[in-house]
Each structure stands twice: as C-alpha cells, then as structure tokens.
Amino acid sequence: MKPETSIISILPVILLSFAGLVFAENIDPNGDGSRYAYGENVGWLNFKPNQGPGVTVSDNKLIGFVWAENIGWINLDPNDADPNTGVSNDGTGLLSGYAWGENVGWINFNPKVLNDPNRYGVIIDQEGNFDGWAWGENIGWIHFQSACVIDWDVLANFAAQWLETGSELEADLYIDEKVNLLDFSVLANSWLDECLLDWQLGPAGYKVKTLWTGKQ
After folding, report:
1. How many structural domains comprise the chain?
2. Mean of per-residue pLDDT scores for the chain
3. The whole model's pTM is what?
4. Which domain covers residue 185, as residue numbers?
C-alpha cells in the first residue's frame, strides 16, 4: 500500500504559496496513482504530494519538489541560476543533472557505472512514463517504473491463501503444495524488494507518469 503524504517538516510558508502559483504540476495526469518512485533504502518518493509543490516536466528541465516520508523534500531545481544543478531534460525525455535533498544530499538522474557504456539514467518515454535509475551517494539507487514490489498489498494477497493446500497456489513460495510459515519466510526475506521472476501475488507496481511527452 503506497503511503499517503504527511508532512512532518514544513517548508517555509512563502515558498509553498509562491510555488503553487508558479508550478503547474503535470504528474499523474490520469489520477491513477502514477506518481511514485522507489528507493530500497528510503522507501516511496511522491512526485505529486497532496500538500506542497509537486513536479512539473517541461521541454528543458524538471522543477518542483518530491516528497519522501523517510527523508523529506527533494528539490529538482535547487538553484536555477546555476546550470550545474537541477534536473535537465534534453527535449526528448533523456534526463540528467542533480536534485538536492536537505537530508540526503545530491541525487544524480544520469548516473554512470564504471566500465559500463550502458545508460542507466532516468528517461521519459513517448507515453509520458518515467523509467530508469537515479543515484544518491548517501541513499543508493532510486528506481522508476517497476512492475511489482513486495509490500502490504502482496502480503494481503498472501494472507488470503494462508493454510490452504493444493498444486496451483500463488502463495506457495516454498513449493510444497501448502501455504504456511515456510512460505511466509520466503516473502519476509524479500520484503520491499522487487518481485521475483514469475511472481504471482502482485502486481503492486509503482511508476511516475507525466502529461509531457516531448519532442520524440
């Protein structure tokens, strides 16, 4: 179950008031909850929080704030006068640059892996879906567009088959035709990780989607 946004630390009132005037959020255009990225070390990141300025995607950059329950606000355009800060968009959906979190430091939207020429950074596809990875030195990887993550929704599906027996039980993770503590131990060891191959208890997916689709 994705967390509801609750603010435990408040940005200055003036910032929130003016941000509401300047930013026209274009995240989660269909209102179906497509506003979340996930970091294994920090939990959910909400690109369209219920309170405060959310995120707007334009042809050249991302502006606004992401809210994370465990680490607070992340600013995608911390110093618009400095081209070396902020998250840039090349106009086709390839993102780069750095966001800033007061509690976690810089977050790189186009990280490089040593001796690996592949691009792992965040992109926006032709339908407005975010994908890829961001990296924070102090918090590790943040993943966009996952098919499934093992969380409370998965646990609820698991509980519905508790102590059942049979040959085609999705919750039979230990593969012995019954659902008991052995299966629960498999689920618990994978808690908040991405779902295993052929996982049948989801989906409990997450993604960020924007109305912006760019110059593809």
Report:
1. 2
2. 84
3. 0.69
4. 152-189
